[in-house]
Inverse folding.
């Protein structure tokens, strides 16, 4: 649809010129109509094509093309009111800009005059600016026509041309890729005859409105098209092929490589929509022909505000350094040439803080009469939430303690069997308490505690102790002179479930035993047993003196 310029709008266009660009002619605004890809000028008395070309196009020599296009044989006898159509290709350029829409990490930029530019959200960049993204740093630019240019980490581009055709505002954009990658989502250019090109040392990718990527790796340029079409050409040569959606190619010193199909989007395994650890993990099903995978994390569904990325040569991708929040992950498969495939985009939430404590006991097994659960103390913890279940999914809870104050809890006696337990940290925040995710479930088997059989008071001979055992166990035996075992009569390790001890002096003693299982598990000491050693009468050779009722003891 054509629109007629108002006088104020036309004067604004006239004042928009700069020393680098000639100001528009002082014509009657009513004589000029602007279309999507052309302008139409209604000839006035005395107008010639030379004057019109000099005033409305980029060169007065364009009068020849105007004559052919408008079928005018004698430009000096142009009837008043004749419609002179001027295509956008002949219009002069006005300067344009790019604006920083999103960023993260370290971004360096210099203007065309070499002066450094401080990059922030909303910073306006002009033609000639050079931008560098550091490690794990990202930048997204928005152009006036709502096209978007994204720079992943370790990339460098020059905004070689940022202009628009006068009157029609048709964009004329050239991005020079000096290092790394550039991803572009270009608004349709067919109607306004705009131009958007990505230049690199070897190739030029020209588009008419599309979503595409260009990657410079050593002496190769890789181009991938997700929508629209891209004409690929070696530098300073005519286009060699056009890439269609789902196609890519590699250009090197030998020439423009053929178009190949991009790998399909990877499929994610498991349920990655909720991430509960600071290290975000994604697992993908293998894609046939893939040599690796790339993941990018963004805060928006269009993945323009990228905050992290990682590559892996296997199907497991890990990323660190993210704060808790809502994100989107974009995962692509990389083929043997390094071309990225079709992306898979999924939303996910990261809730990893406050981090759970490290579990201490019990692990694997326990033989305690009273089961004690313990974990490392978290510095800012207000309390802990302990759960014990008989199933790994924690559907059958045996114990649920939502506010354990210290880093341990005595559960008392539990039935023998298999259990699972986990702990979460609770901290105080401005809006109240905040519970973090549970730690990894710990599985343990509750086995019978070691029981030392009741020992009768011993009045003569060596002391012999026996107890039940399991295959492969070893034992530590302690005999104490007091119930606290501060003074030991004996401590001994044995591989058999028995021990013979020379008879000690008369008195009361205490014995306890702990088992070491074949897998290295060290159980707790058994409940303490008290043993009384009585006095005795002996013969001259040291044998006990016997009477009819048995051994003779003192104290009778």
């Amino acid at each position: 649809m054509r629109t007629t310029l108002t006088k104020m709008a036309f004067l604004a266009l006239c004042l928009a010129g700069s020393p680098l660009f000639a100001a528009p002619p002082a014509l009657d605004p009513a004589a000029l109509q602007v279309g999507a890809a052309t302008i139409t000028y209604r000839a006035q008395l005395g107008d010639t094509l030379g004057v019109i070309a000099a005033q409305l196009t980029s060169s007065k020599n364009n009068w020849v093309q105007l004559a052919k296009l408008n079928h005018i044989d004698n430009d000096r006898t142009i009837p008043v009111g004749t419609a002179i159509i001027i295509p956008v290709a002949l219009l002069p350029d006005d300067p344009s800009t790019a604006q920083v829409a999103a960023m993260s990490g370290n971004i360096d930029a210099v203007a065309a005059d070499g002066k450094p530019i401080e990059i922030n959200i909303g910073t306006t960049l002009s033609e000639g600016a050079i931008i560098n993204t550091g490690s794990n740093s990202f930048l997204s630019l928005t152009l006036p026509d709502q096209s978007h240019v994204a720079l992943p980490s370790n990339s460098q581009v020059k905004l070689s041309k940022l202009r628009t055709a006068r009157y029609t505002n048709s964009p004329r954009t050239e991005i020079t890729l000096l290092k790394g990658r550039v991803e572009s989502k270009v608004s349709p250019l067919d109607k306004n005859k705009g131009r958007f090109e990505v230049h690199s040392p070897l190739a030029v990718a020209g588009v008419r409105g599309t979503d595409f990527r260009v990657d410079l790796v050593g002496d190769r340029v890789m181009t991938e098209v997700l929508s629209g079409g891209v004409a690929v050409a070696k530098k300073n040569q005519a286009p060699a092929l056009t890439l269609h959606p789902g196609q890519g190619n590699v250009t090197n010193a030998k020439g423009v490589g053929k178009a190949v199909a991009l790998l399909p989007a990877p499929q994610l395994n498991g349920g990655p929509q909720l991430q509960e650890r600071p290290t975000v993990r994604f697992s993908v099903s293998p894609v046939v022909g893939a040599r690796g995978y790339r993941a990018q994390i963004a805060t928006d569904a269009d993945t323009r505000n990228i905050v992290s990325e990682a590559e892996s040569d296997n199907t497991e991708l890990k990323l660190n350094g993210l704060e808790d929040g809502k994100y989107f992950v974009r995962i692509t498969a990389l083929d043997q040439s390094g071309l990225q495939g079709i992306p898979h985009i999924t939303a996910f939430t990261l809730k990893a803080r406050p981090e759970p404590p490290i579990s201490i006991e019990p692990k694997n097994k326990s033989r305690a009469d009273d089961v004690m659960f313990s974990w490392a103390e978290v510095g800012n913890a207000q309390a802990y939430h302990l759960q014990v279940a008989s199933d790994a999914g924690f559907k059958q809870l045996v114990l649920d303690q939502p506010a354990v104050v210290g880093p341990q809890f005595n559960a008392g006696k539990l039935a023998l069997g298999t259990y699972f337990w986990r702990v979460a940290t609770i901290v105080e925040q401005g809006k109240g308490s905040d519970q973090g995710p549970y730690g990894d479930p710990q599985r343990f088997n509750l086995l019978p505690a070691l029981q030392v059989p009741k020992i009768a008071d011993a009045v003569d001979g060596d002391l012999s102790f026996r107890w039940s055992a399991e295959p492969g166990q070893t034992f530590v035996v302690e005999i104490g002179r007091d119930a606290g075992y501060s003074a030991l009569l004996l401590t001994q390790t044995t591989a058999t479930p028995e021990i013979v001890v020379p008879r000690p002096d008369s008195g009361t003693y205490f014995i306890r035993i702990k088992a070491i299982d074949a897998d290295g598990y060290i159980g707790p000491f058994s409940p303490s047993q008290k043993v009384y050693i009585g006095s005795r009468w002996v013969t001259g050779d040291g044998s006990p003196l016997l009477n009819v009722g048995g051994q003779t003891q003192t104290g009778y």
Summary: The CA atoms of residues 147 and 186 lie 4 Å apart. The chain has three helices and 47 strands. The longest strand covers residues 171-185.
